[in-house]
Specification:
heterodimer, A: 235 residues, mainly alpha, elongated, B: 444 residues, alpha/beta, Spore Coat Polysaccharide Biosynthesis Protein SpsA, Chain A, 8-stranded mixed beta sheet, disordered C terminus
Chain lengths: 235, 444
């Protein structure tokens, strides 16, 4: 009976206790890392948010039209706060990965490593999206002004096309960076643009041949006529 | 202060060593002006021989890479002085024909001329455009004698022009310069100027040669810089100005951007000066004013109004950023019903200009976008001016411009108020509501 109790009950319990004692330091380390990460994330987030406010980041974003864009997207938080929160969550994610690593369990370690290896791609994709967004805004504004000054009636359409074109391009590049269906993105992008150009050419050349002729004649004749009519010396 | 030298070509350096020094320098910036530059060179040569026969003089052609042989024409153009009753020419006119370095544009051409003036220690300088058809030898005397004999530092031209000629000058450059700096210089971007060697050296020392000043902004910058530096300023009556159209490749929005950019940049630099200035004073005028017939100018008002209306619709989000709410609302409310109707009264135009200057100062958007977005507004104002002056004589149209200048001066507190940082602005600015169409006001 004693043997039975020793073999069937106490030995597994002893084994479990040993295993727990082996893992306990790792669990403690994980807890400490998580707590430290939480504090670091809060401190970093708070400090960066304050710093961005002091250097006038919100004002800069306002001038770049980012605040308006955020509002359009339903985001009412100011950009400094957004950056602060992004830093906070980035540190939390990194601390969580480090904490999981502290358990020293093979599957979890592999998962943490693959997650870490993916972070640079995430960051690159985010930078591409941001750069694409700013570039598209800048370019579409420049295109709009130039088109209006040139007297082109579809100025807003041209500007919108340039904006969406650049944003779609940035999106495709970001997806490619993330490794999501790389070939499908590239092929899809090529097919879409090729299709748009071909459709436009066919529509303009066949469906609206008379309109195209009339448009070009009006533009060219109007331009030469207007330059004859107007010999203003502005300076 | 920039103490570095502007680079010159090796042949020009050698030529400068040969000439060594000069009392008078006349500069001609050029770019594909083969049609007219010969006439300009002859007028300058005769002017110098007739009015400054004993002075050591140099003619400098600063060319932007003409492909039509302009420099060659400058180099070989000869004058038969005997047929002009000039027999006592005592000094040979030296010629320097040189390309310029830097950003392509009139300002860079001037920079080379200023550098040559400094190297030759010239006492008096003048610059004349290469596209002039109406220049006469007397222009050279009128631009140089106030410097040589009257102790002035800067001579601005005073022309008779058609009422629709020089619309950027009439609606913007003249009224704004006058309101800001208190000097009534009628043609601040005229193109022909006289200036002392000391002022040329001052111009060279400024760090502006990579900005709009390097292009069409040079004329307004020279005038404002002369006033701001405390130079003695006067004007000379030159009669009618007839010239070939500007470089056809230079589109209006680029021209406007360069002039406005230079104006607004000067405002930032000399804020302390203009913010204290109230009213304006007449600037001495040399020469003998006379009436002269001017070339008619055809204006396509319909096209201008069409541009303005498109701007009002398509550029609304941008204009809303640049202009005060009140200004934009007035523009929208005043939009006429009929096709060619466009009314932008003086007060509203002044608000637009002051709002634009403030927006430039506060960098609310990329500067190039801001300045180019103003082109339809300028065209709307020009169309409005044409409407208001149709059937009027040049003198009557000039009175309209004078009234606009008074409005610019009277509403200057609006600019000063908006220019300040928000913390320094009063709680409820109400200046605009006092603006009336009366041309009098607080003008001194």
């Amino acid at each position: 009976m004693n043997d039975f109790i020793n073999q069937a009950l106490l030995k597994p319990l002893e084994l479990l206790g040993r295993q727990l004692l082996t893992v306990l330091p790792n669990v403690l380390a994980m807890g400490i890392i998580l707590l430290g990460g939480l504090f670091t994330a809060w401190a970093f987030g708070f400090f960066v948010e304050r710093l961005f406010r002091v250097i006038g980041f919100d004002h800069l974003c306002d001038r770049l039209g980012m605040n308006a864009a955020l509002l359009r997207g339903g985001v009412k938080t100011d950009p400094s706060r957004l950056v602060g929160r992004s830093i906070y969550w980035t540190v939390i994610v990194l601390a969580s990965i480090a904490a999981l690593g502290a358990l020293n369990l093979t599957p979890i370690n592999q998962f943490a490593q693959s997650l870490l290896a993916y972070v640079p791609h995430l960051v690159t994709a985010a930078v591409i999206l941001l750069a694409g967004y700013f570039l598209s805004n800048f370019a579409s504004q420049a295109v709009l002004i130039a088109a209006v000054n040139a007297g082109l009636p579809p100025a807003r359409l041209i500007a919108a096309c340039s904006r969406w074109g650049l944003q779609v391009l940035a999106g495709a590049m970001a997806l490619e960076q993330l490794g999501i269906a790389q070939h499908i993105v590239v092929v899809g992008f090529g097919i879409t643009w090729g299709g748009i150009v071909l459709a436009g050419a066919i529509a303009f050349g066949l469906g609206a041949a008379d309109l195209a002729k009339e448009f070009l004649e009006r533009r060219l004749v109007a331009r030469s006529k207007s330059s004859r009519d107007d010999d203003l010396h502005h300076l | 202060m920039n103490t570095g030298r502007t680079p010159l070509t090796a042949p020009t350096e050698a030529r400068l060593q040969d000439i060594d020094s000069a009392e008078i320098l006349v500069g001609i910036p050029s770019y594909n002006n083969a049609d007219t530059v010969g006439h300009v060179v002859r007028a300058v040569s005769v002017g110098l021989a007739k009015h400054f026969p004993s002075r050591r003089a140099v003619l400098v052609n600063s060319d932007g890479g003409s492909s039509d042989g302009t420099p060659a024409i400058v180099a070989r153009t000869a004058v038969d002085f005997q047929h002009l009753f000039i027999g006592d020419q005592q000094s040979v006119l030296h010629r320097i024909v040189t390309p310029y370095h830097g950003i392509p544009g009139k300002g860079s051409a001037f920079r080379t001329i200023f550098e040559i003036a400094r190297r030759l220690k010239a006492k008096a300088c003048a610059v004349v455009d290469a596209d002039l058809r109406s220049i006469s030898p007397e222009w050279i005397e009128l631009l140089l004698r106030p410097i040589m004999e009257e102790g002035y530092d800067y001579v601005a031209p005073y022309y008779l022009r058609h009422k629709y000629d020089g619309t950027i000058t009439n609606s913007l450059a003249y009224p704004l310069t006058r309101a800001l700096y208190g000097q009534r210089i009628r043609q601040p971007i005229g193109g022909e100027f006289g200036f002392s060697g000391a002022l040329a050296a001052h111009y060279l020392d400024q760090h502006v040669w990579e900005s709009e000043v390097a292009r069409f902004g040079i004329d307004i910058w020279m005038t404002t810089e002369a006033i701001a530096s405390g130079a003695r300023v006067c004007q000379s009556f030159l009669g009618a100005k007839i010239h070939n159209p500007k470089d056809p490749a230079a589109d209006l929005s680029a021209m406007l951007m360069q002039v406005m950019g230079a104006l607004f940049a000067s405002m930032e630099q000399h804020e302390g000066l203009w913010s204290r200035q109230k009213g304006s004073q007449a600037v001495p005028l040399f020469g003998f004013p006379y009436e002269v017939g001017v070339e008619p100018v055809h204006v396509n008002v319909e096209r201008m109004v069409s541009h303005y209306r498109q701007g009002l619709t398509d550029l609304e989000p941008i204009w809303r950023q640049i202009l005060a709410n009140d200004t934009f609302t007035q523009l929208r409310d005043l939009q006429g019903a009929s096709g060619t109707d466009c009314r932008i009264p003086d007060e509203l135009w002044v608000q637009v200009v002051y709002d634009a200057a403030t927006a430039y100062h506060k960098r609310i958007m990329p500067i190039e976008h801001l300045l180019k977005a103003l082109t339809p507004l300028y065209l709307g104002r020009t169309a409005s001016f044409v409407h208001a002056t149709q059937g009027l004589t040049s003198t009557e149209a000039e009175q309209k411009i004078e009234a606009l200048c008074h409005t610019f001066e009277r509403m200057k507190p609006y600019l000063v108020e908006r220019w300040q940082p928000p913390a320094l602005q009063p709680a409820a600015p109400d200046l605009l509501h006092h603006a009336t169409t009366d041309a009098g006001g607080e003008h001194e």
